[in-house]
Amino acid sequence: MMHLPQIKTAFVLGAGLGMRLRPLTDTCPKPLLPVNGRPIITYVMDHLITAGIERFIVNTHHCAEAYHRVFPDRQWRTIPIIFRHEPVLLDTAGGIKNIEDLLENDPVLLVYNGDIITDLPLQRLFDTHREKQKEATLALRSKGSPLNVNINNRGEVCDLRQILGDPGVMSCLFTGIYVVEKRFLSRLKPGHKESVINVFIEMIREKPGSVSGVIIDEGQWHDIGSTEEYERMNTFLPQSGNGDASNQ
């Protein structure tokens, strides 16, 4: 097997508007909402640190100045954070393209939604990406809602959101965590607002089997997508001993 470089940089999506959590997000980006005394995004970063990530890139848009208040030293537990502002919201694919100039020494990138809390073993995702050597590998779960990613018997993604009409052998939940090769960015247009889901669909339509998936059912996975789930997480997780992220 070809030796592939270690994944050292994670792009954490932090620019969303958090519409479903209003009014909580009227003056605060959703990833900075506190869950038991600390911002959601710090749970994300702790998970990434356990996986060996050495640098965070976070895109910002809504209430961007709040990130600088929470992380005045531009780091979390000594790991550096680079913020990339989007004056116009670019969605997931546009956000990835917008950090291309920061990836000169990163042939592989981990992308991670900034509003989820999980401890699933990321090494499984990394190992599958190295083994399959596809442009993109998605972390999936076999249960949850919505089950909108279909895979075939080779573990390849064959449909997303039932757009291509291929049921495959199993429907899965997309965790919002995935690995892309740097060459994937050549498919994206600078300054263009677009979802990464659309790009994956076009890749599969152009070349079936070009997007890989791995089912990781171990661990917990929570999408903070509603006020009800947000309130539940505040009782589900233990109280943090230090709610001040800037002191980490």
* The first-level CATH class name: Alpha Beta
Number of strands: 14
CATH topology: Spore Coat Polysaccharide Biosynthesis Protein SpsA, Chain A
Which band does the percent of strand residues land in?
Answer: 25-35%
| Main sheet attributes: strand count, strand direction, barrel closure | 10 strands, mixed
Radius of gyration: 17 Å
Number of domains: 1
Helix content: 10-25%
Structural class: alpha/beta
Mean pLDDT: 90
SSE pattern, N- to C-terminal: EEEHEHEEHEEHEEEEHEEH
The N- to C-terminal Cα distance equals 39 Å
The assigned CATH architecture is: Alpha-Beta Complex
Number of helices: 6
**What is the approximate shape?**
globular
- Unreliable stretches (pLDDT < 50, length at least 5) are none
**CATH superfamily label:** Spore Coat Polysaccharide Biosynthesis Protein SpsA, Chain A
